[in-house]
Design a protein that fits this description.
CATH architecture: 2-Layer Sandwich
Radius of gyration: 18 Å
Number of helices: 7
Number of strands: 9
Order of helices and strands: HHEHHEEHEEHEEHEE
CATH class: Alpha Beta
CATH superfamily: Histidine kinase-like ATPase, C-terminal domain
Helix content: 40-55%
Number of domains: 1
Strand content: 15-25%
Largest sheet: 5 strands, mixed
Strand order of the largest sheet: 2-4-5-9-8
Length: about 240
């Protein structure tokens, strides 16, 4: 069941989550305008890459907020179909490739081809995107983010795991990770801000598609975020 969040609290989430990427875009664009004539081609390319990264972060946040708002007031309409897990994971890892490169994080996907779940494709993309983003955010330089899958519940479901070698979580934080009580300002290993809205959205979308989501973690040992969705048995 989706947890209700008041409009005031939602606006607070919006203001907090968007402040950093929008501020980065404004600041970097300003530097380009002021110093363009004196910058080298490499410096210009670096600035443009940073602007692209910040704009991608802002886009993800806005998409989360729009989907969460639609779910809160009953406007979310699902269109379940055979969703290609292998392709969706490959596409979403590509989005975070630059962030991973900057932190020297190794991406590994162990998802096999012809792995399908019966779910709304848009929802699955949002779930994977948020879980990978969260893993990259809380994994230190030189770490690893790995995505794998297996059959579960007598092969009726696919269990997908996003595993990281990050900072880990206490049991107290795990218990409230996917709830409105878990909304709080937190920071990644390089002070990347987060509010927990993405994980609340993941729980809502997973459950609406007939699955479950949970976390396993130890402080200093990394985390595994796992979810299940109905399996498609190909002929």
């Amino acid at each position: 069941m989706t947890e209700y969040i008041s409009k005031d609290r939602l606006f607070s989430i919006i203001a907090h989550d968007l402040r950093n990427p929008v501020g980065s875009i404004k600041g970097l664009a300003g530097l380009l305008v002021e110093d363009y004539e004196t910058l080298s081609s490499k410096e210009i390319k670096d600035y443009v890459q940073m602007i692209h990264t910040a704009s991608e972060s802002a886009h993800i946040l806005l998409e989360n907020l729009l989907q969460w708002a639609a779910s809160q007031d009953g406007r979310l309409r699902l269109s379940p179909d055979n969703a290609d897990v292998y392709q969706i994971v490959s596409d979403k890892l590509a989005i975070f490739r630059e962030d991973a490169r900057r932190k020297n994080i190794c991406f590994t996907s162990l998802i096999e081809k012809d792995t399908y779940v019966f779910a709304d494709v848009r929802c699955l993309k949002i779930i994977i995107r948020n879980l990978v983003s969260n893993a990259v955010k809380f994994t230190p330089c030189g770490g690893e983010v790995k995505i794998s899958s297996r059959t579960a519940d007598e092969e009726e479901f696919i269990e997908i795991t996003v595993c990281d070698t990050g900072i880990g979580m206490s049991k107290e934080n795990m218990d409230r990770l996917f709830t409105a009580d878990g909304y709080r300002i937190s920071f990644g290993t390089e002070r990347e801000p987060g509010s927990g809205l993405g994980l609340m959205l993941c729980k809502d979308l997973v459950e609406k598609n007939g699955g479950e989501i949970w976390a396993e973690s130890k402080i200093g040992k990394g985390s595994e975020l796992k979810f299940t969705l109905p399996r498609v048995k190909l002929p």
